Amino acid sequence: MRPCRGPTCLPALALAWFFLVPAVFAGDLVLGNFSAGDLAGWQPKRFRGETSYSLVVDGERRVLKAHSRGAASGLYKEVDLDPAKYPVLRWLWKIGGTIPNGDERTKAGDDYAARVYIVFPRTFFWKTKAINYIWANRLPQGESLPNAFTSNAVMVAVESGDGKAGTWVTEERNVYEDYRALFGEDPPAIDAIALMTDTDNTGGEAEAYYGDIFLGPAR
Fold first, then answer.
1. Are residues 201 and 111 in contact, defined by beta-carbon separation less than 8 angstroms?
2. Model pTM?
3. pLDDT at 18 over 90
4. What whole-number distance in Å separates Cα of residue 195 and Cα of residue 211?
């Protein structure tokens, strides 16, 4: 009998775990080590009200849970990284559902069940730019548009709608190439990474879960 090798030989629970954990590649930096219960370096940023962020166990995995009810606050982590050296951003996330009244095109609908964004500073703070990777309410997957409040932030619909709600999804983006495509120039250093689940503009409610976050070299 041939020995059984590979993920198909794992028990069902272990197999689910195998596919839930993103691979860690050589040179990767772990920016969000939530599976280890580590929130070191992550700080709250409040805009209106306060979204609740807490480490919880979802199934067999420790993750960061966000719950927002008519509030907007996020968690951010300051970094100083060269996106040319570390262009590839990878993360896990899951939402309970999108926001019914959410609409990326309007200020009144500028709420998101989940978003991960990268901040690029400038000499003057009002010129600071950001890429928001969002789980969109209405914007079709793969499309992007300027934020309803400021053109210095661009919203990129990595996922859209409720088709995958309740399911863990692994994402990967080339931040360096995205910045060039969105802003028409080479990016400066990455100043911060942030997470936010917000419902202040619609007055709605949202729940999301964030898994580990990695930034690494191109492969």
1. yes
2. 0.87
3. no
4. 11
